[in-house]
Amino acid sequence: MTEPTSAEFDRPAPAPAGDSARELRGHPLRQGSSVGITAAAAHLPQQVLTSEELQQQVTEASGLPLPSRLFERATGIRARRVAADMEYASTLAAAAARVALDRAGLDPLDVDLLLFASASRDVIEPATAHIVQAELGTRAHAADVTNACNSFLNGVDIARSMIMAGRARRALVVTGETPSRAVRRDPATYGEFREAMAGYTFGDAGAAVVLEPVDGGGIVDVDTETRSEHWAVGGIPGGGSRHPRGDEHTYFRGDGTELRETFEKIGVDIFDRLVRRTGLEWADYRYVLVHQVTLPYLQRFQVLTGVPEDRLVVTVPVIGNVASATLGVQLDQVYDRLQPGDRVLLVGLGGGVSIMTMVWERS
Predict the structure, then answer these.
(1) Would you tell me which of 12, 28, 317, 325 could form a disulfide with 205, CB atoms 3.0–4.6 Å apart?
(2) Where residue 9 falls among pLDDT bands split at 50, 70, 90?
(3) 164 sits in which H/E element
(4) 219 forms bridges with which residues in the sheet?
(5) How many other C-beta atoms are found inside a 10 Å radius of the C-beta of residue 134?
(6) CA 34 to CA 127: how far, in whole Å?
(7) 24 bridge partner residues
(8) In this structure, are residues 163 and 190 in contact, taking their beta carbons and an 8 Å threshold?
């Protein structure tokens, strides 16, 4: 498995693309064309919080004695990035968006669709997409897409569909995730601690992609599996009409073991369908990017599916579970390594629950 170091996440953005990228402005989707990802970027907060430091905070706030290095040993997560006090979901998204536009050689006004696709948000109303748009200076149609950790992948799929339908010519899909703010640091009992444990995997991040018509390759296959009877397995109950107020409802709570077992029960079929539909095997992908909750989760995924280690990009040990930004961060890591014709399989796992696969071929 390829595991980037934390230093790799801070690599500077390359110089903007030249006239070849600008020639796509105003380019209509011709018959036979497809829609592809033409730029990707990620942004991580500067502040690093190690698992040891997080466990110490929980121990001091709760008074519960915990085994040494419990968080790291249980999750495989050594550290994560956390947003500063004046950094928000929109802040992380806008920072990634600026880099993605720069890499595509585009001005913000070249975008006519902006989707903020995230499990986090700045406020309940209005859509956080408007806050991102105000920061960037676009005039695009702006909207939010929310589907737990599959939000970003859903956003990419929706943007692709709108371009193919002629509703947009160029889309910017962004996510900003700040789930670290939903972590309960003061559980009063071991029962509350177990309910909060899944939240101790969280880190913060932003990501962005540009989607445009391309003459070859692009996003060639999308599939989803949704089992909504499991919606109560985990989540943040506050902020909606059920629990509009109260700090108690603002913490992430859930059963990580039950969630993993649910994904294992329903997840294998989607990969069988993918092979039957596309004829593609693991060897046909340059990379397989998978949503990562913990390192044991990822290792179990590898056992169940048989994906080769050298196809995976392992990010969870150094940045934690960054919710819907996970795939965007991984895509940013591998984008410059890809050659035309290289295929990438993106695999999304989201509470609710839903599983998504997306096959993208670099043009």
Answers:
(1) 325
(2) low
(3) helix 151-164
(4) 360
(5) 12
(6) 29
(7) none
(8) no
> How far is it, in rounded angstroms, from Cα 189 to Cα 9?
37
Give the global pTM.
Answer: 0.90
Residue 8 pLDDT: 57
To which H or E segment does residue 285 belong?
none
Burial level of 288, CB count in 10 A (0-12/13-18/19+)?
A: buried
Pick from 186, 174, 178: nearest CA to 202: 178
Q: Give the pLDDT confidence score for residue 43 in this predicted structure.
A: 98
Share above pLDDT 70 across residues of the chain, in percent, rounded to a whole number: 91
Distance linking the first and last C-alpha atoms of the chain: 25
Q: What is the pLDDT of the chain when averaged over all its residues?
A: 90
Angle between helices 325-334 and 151-164 (to 10 degrees): 70
DSSP annotation of 313: B
56 vs 48: CA distance, rounded Å: 15
The pLDDT of residue 162 is above 70: yes
The helix (H) or strand (E) run that includes residue 61 is helix 51-62
Answer yes or no: is pLDDT of 14 > 90. no
CA distance 319 to 191: 27
DSSP code per residue over 2-57: B---GGGGGPPPPPPP-HHHHTTTT----TT-EEEEEEEEEE--S-EEEHHHHHHH
Residue 61 burial (CB count, 10 A): 13
Question: In the numeric block, which tokens belong to residue 154?
Answer: 């859903």
Q: What is the pLDDT of residue 27?
A: 37
pLDDT digits (tens, 9 = 90+) for 250-286: 777 777 777 777 778 777 789 999 999 999 999 999 9
Question: Which residue do the tokens 């390829």 mark?
Answer: 2
